[in-house]
């Protein structure tokens, strides 16, 4: 378990702690105490707050959930937070978050124990056809605890565990890359900017793992993955700056899709820009897409940003992006994600 209260002391379902209840009305607090005692709990009141020690988080949430339903009929609104007794900092979680956490015990266990691995998808240099890097993609490490990465991150976000999962996935990717890749091979690793509230603090553990595993920082490329609008560009610029101060490269993913615009590319000035598949798919048959790609490449060239075409699934797409002047490419036509890295070069023979 991590020791940072923001990135997540993660209470397990068996962890002991105290639930803190509040109600606006004095009569409401009396009613809460009565209901808790009727359920076998031993509440203690301190001002407007009612403290109830529990043997486990799971027990607490199930009792509070039932209590909430009972009191709703009396018109009393209950607010509850959990404080886990094992935390050095004390970790406060509201009832809604706790309900999410116990809704999928297997997901909580996966995050708590890091029960996942990574597959690698090759990225080629279009000028030399050599494999210059691998993107790391989270996958289950066993059939016992299976998950879809998107669903796991969605659960983590609702359960207030997104920072924990993002940090674990980032560090695990670095460790995995140290075992499988030679020095000089770029390692493209996703990160969620919303999970990093203070770059200098939150990224210490990442840089520690880099050093421990002897990974050259210049071989790392951390790429922004964000499904929601970036409201604080200055914060993201600060994250990029922190990475680059340590010699790490940065990339902006999904260009041309959603909020990852060319204007954002020019504001952030990453080392790499990854163009979304929506612009690459059948670009050989779409002159409008080709024109958009040309303009994107021109503006990237001004800032010396290397451009990567994602989602290449056909030979014709590969040929077009190469002719247009893309530096790099990635996709199923080149190579699918795998446990082990693809060979050092790419050939179209037999494709």
Care to describe what's here?
This protein is of the alpha/beta class and 351 residues long. It folds into two domains: 17-103, Reverse transcriptase/Diguanylate cyclase domain (Alpha-Beta Plaits); 107-330, Alpha-Beta Barrel (TIM Barrel), CATH 3.20.20. Helices cover 40% and strands 21% of the residues. The chain has 13 helices and 13 strands. The chain has helices spanning 26-38, 57-72, 95-103, 105-113, 149-158, 162-180, 199-202, 204-212, 233-245, 262-268, 277-280, 287-302, 315-324; strands at residues 17-22, 44-46, 49-54, 79-84, 92-94, 116-125, 131-140, 186-191, 220-224, 249-255, 272-275, 306-309, 328-330. The strands form two sheets. It has an eight-stranded mixed beta barrel with strand order 6-7-8-9-10-11-12-13, surrounded by five helices. The chain has a five-stranded antiparallel sheet with strand order 2-3-1-4-5. The longest helix is centred in the middle third of the chain and has 19 residues, at 162-180. It is elongated.
Q: How would you sum up this structure in a few lines?
A:
This protein has about 350 residues and is of the alpha/beta class.
Shape: elongated
CATH level-four homologous superfamily name of the largest domain? EAL domain
The CATH class name of the largest domain reads Alpha Beta
Average pLDDT metric: 84
Q: Termini distance?
A: 46 Å
The gyration radius over C-alpha positions equals 24 Å
Main sheet: strands, sense, barrel: 8 strands, mixed, barrel
Q: Beta-strand percentage?
A: 15-25%
Number of domains: 2
Pfam families: EAL
Domain EAL: 99-351
Protein name: EAL domain-containing protein (Putative c-di-GMP-specific phosphodiesterase class I)
Organism: Sinobaca qinghaiensis
């Amino acid at each position: 378990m991590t020791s940072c209260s923001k990135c997540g002391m993660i209470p397990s379902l068996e962890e002991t702690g105290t639930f803190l209840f509040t109600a606006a009305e004095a009569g409401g607090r009396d009613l809460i105490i009565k209901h808790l005692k009727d359920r076998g709990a031993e509440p203690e009141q301190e001002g407007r707050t009612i403290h109830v020690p529990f043997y486990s988080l799971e027990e607490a949430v199930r009792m509070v959930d039932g209590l909430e339903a009972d009191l709703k009929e009396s018109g009393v609104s209950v607010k509850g937070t959990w404080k886990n007794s094992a935390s050095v900092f004390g970790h406060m979680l509201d009832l809604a978050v706790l309900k999410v956490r116990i809704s999928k015990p297997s997901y909580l266990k996966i995050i708590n124990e890091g029960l996942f691995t990574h597959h690698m998808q090759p990225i080629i240099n279009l000028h030399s056809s050599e494999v210059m890097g691998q993107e790391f993609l989270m996958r289950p490490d066993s059939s016992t605890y299976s998950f879809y990465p998107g669903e796991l991150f969605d659960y983590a976000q609702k359960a207030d565990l997104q920072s924990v999962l993002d940090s674990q996935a980032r560090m695990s990717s670095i460790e995995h890359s140290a075992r499988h890749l030679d020095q000089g091979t770029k390692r493209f690793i996703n990160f969620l900017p919303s999970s990093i509230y203070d770059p200098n603090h939150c990224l210490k553990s990442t840089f520690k793992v880099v050093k421990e595993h002897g990974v050259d920082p210049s071989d790392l490329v951390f790429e922004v993955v964000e499904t929601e609008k970036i409201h604080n560009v200055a914060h993201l610029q600060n994250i990029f700056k922190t990475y680059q101060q340590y010699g790490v490269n940065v990339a902006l993913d999904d260009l041309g899709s959603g909020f990852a615009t060319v204007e954002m590319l020019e504001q952030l000035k990453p080392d790499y820009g990854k163009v979304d598949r929506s612009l690459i798919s059948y670009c050989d048959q779409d002159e409008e897409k080709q024109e958009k790609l040309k303009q994107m490449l021109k503006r990237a060239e001004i800032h010396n940003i290397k451009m990567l075409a994602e989602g290449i699934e056909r030979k014709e797409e590969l040929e077009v992006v190469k002719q247009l002047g893309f530096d790099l490419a990635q996709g199923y036509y080149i190579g699918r994600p795998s446990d082990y890295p693809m060979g050092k070069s790419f050939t179209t023979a037999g494709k």
